[in-house]
Design goal:
The radius of gyration is 27 Å and the shape is elongated. The longest helix has 23 residues, at 277-299. The protein has 2 domains: 2-166 and 203-236, endopeptidase fold (from Nostoc punctiforme) (Alpha-Beta Complex), CATH 3.90.1720; 247-381, no CATH class. The chain has 13 helices and 7 strands. Strands 6-4-3-2-1-5-7 form a 7-stranded antiparallel sheet. The chain has 383 residues and is an alpha+beta fold.
Length: 383
């Protein structure tokens, strides 16, 4: 009997610890993009504010631990667990103000029982045994967690109405809208991610981006028809500063220069009836190595977005096998047929691009043209 009474008292204390005062608020915080690639898409979090109890905490889902065993390997394989975080609001807010990133707040229109249910859920999720989750950039990230957690706590009855500014887009377009097209991050994403991200994202799938969480939550309604968001405000507006990036270090300039060098050397080879074997070795090694990396991303990782990548049509992995022939003065006869095959692959890439199977990085265009010119010359040279 005493044990039962003791457990009841502990249970009452636990439940009491979860209670919020009537004036407590729970809100969604949306942080604007930063300058680095991993910050380019913003961040989302829950803010629980209860001045009567001295509570002002932010819960987020974007933390990871560098001390995780085999951190980089797990990250590359898509097997890295991310963690739920808990931060004091002043510390959270101060950090983003310091880095000049906008912070917007949407106070949720919740009843007292809904607030306490959501708060209890956040506390439960923050327990060490529950914090970790397998991160997915599109389907399970810091933004989608916000949508899913609140929807579950409202019995999955939230209605996400389509905003007036909504535009039908592919996943790739949604990503690239947040990046400078002529940046190494944009180029890397377009090379590494396959055609699976060129499908149209549903309205629900648009919410993998924090800014779209803010947008859709502004229009969301509860089962009763009442708006989900009670009040919205800007806590910090970033200072508009001109970000100067050197064009001479951009991928377009670098690849354009590389392509012009390839074309110029090819022209000189044609004029003097020679072949710069070192150039062919370099090109085959470069394209083959990139192809090998893409193959590994497709088949050796759990990243869904790296599947069906038609960049392999120009970054052809078998170029590593043909590499030996590029060093010979007189390669074997099959090598000429192989070069014709590479031209066919480049033609298929163009077709895939035109019909929309996969969108390729526009900054790659000079290099693709240079490769085609070099392959044509080699076929002519070996006749």
């Amino acid at each position: 009997m005493r044990q039962l009474l003791f457990l009841c008292l502990i249970g009452m204390q636990f439940l009491q610890a979860q209670r919020l005062s009537p004036n407590a608020t729970i809100s969604i915080l949306t942080v604007g993009p930063g300058l680095s690639l991993n910050d380019a898409f913003g961040h989302s979090g829950f803010r629980v504010s209860d001045p009567a109890q001295g509570i002002d905490i932010v819960y987020g889902y974007g933390a990871y631990d560098f001390n995780t065993p085999n951190f980089y390997l797990k990250f590359a394989q898509g097997k890295l667990n991310y963690n739920m975080s808990q931060d004091d609001f002043k510390k959270f807010y101060g950090a983003y103000v310091y880095f000049n990133r906008s912070v917007r707040e949407q106070i949720l229109n919740l009843t007292q029982s809904e607030k306490e249910s959501l708060y209890t859920s956040l506390l439960e999720n923050y327990k060490p045994k529950n914090r970790a989750y397998l991160y997915d950039f599109f389907y399970d990230n810091c933004a989608t967690k916000i949508r899913d957690v609140i929807n579950v706590n409202l019995s999955n009855n939230l209605v996400f109405n389509i905003p007036n500014t909504y535009e039908t887009s592919t996943f790739r377009t949604l990503i690239q809208n947040n990046l400078n097209t002529n940046s190494w991050g944009s180029l890397g994403i377009d090379i590494a991610l396959g055609s699976v991200i060129d499908k149209i994202a549903s309205p629900n799938e648009h919410m993998f981006l924090p800014k779209n969480i803010h947008l859709f939550f502004s229009e969301a309604t509860k089962p009763s028809g009442a708006p989900l968001v009670q009040n919205s405000k800007v806590l910090y507006k970033k200072n508009t500063a001109l970000v100067v990036s050197s064009f001479f270090l951009s991928p377009l300039f670098v690849l354009l220069c590389l392509s012009l060098i390839i074309i110029w050397i090819t022209y000189e080879d044609h004029k003097k009836n020679r072949r710069s074997r070192w150039l062919d070795t370099l090109l085959f090694f470069m394209t083959g190595s990139i192809g090998l990396l893409l193959i590994l991303l497709w088949f050796a990782t759990d990243h869904e977005a790296t599947a069906n990548n038609y960049n392999l049509l120009w970054a052809f992995v078998f170029n590593l096998i043909a590499l030996r022939q590029t060093r010979k003065i007189k390669p074997k006869r099959w090598f000429c047929r192989y070069l014709r095959f590479l031209l066919i692959l480049l033609s298929l890439l163009t077709l895939h691009w035109i019909v929309g199977v996969q969108v390729f990085a526009i900054t790659l265009l000079p290099l693709l043209i240079a490769l085609a010119i070099r392959y044509v010359y080699l076929i002519y040279h070996f006749k």
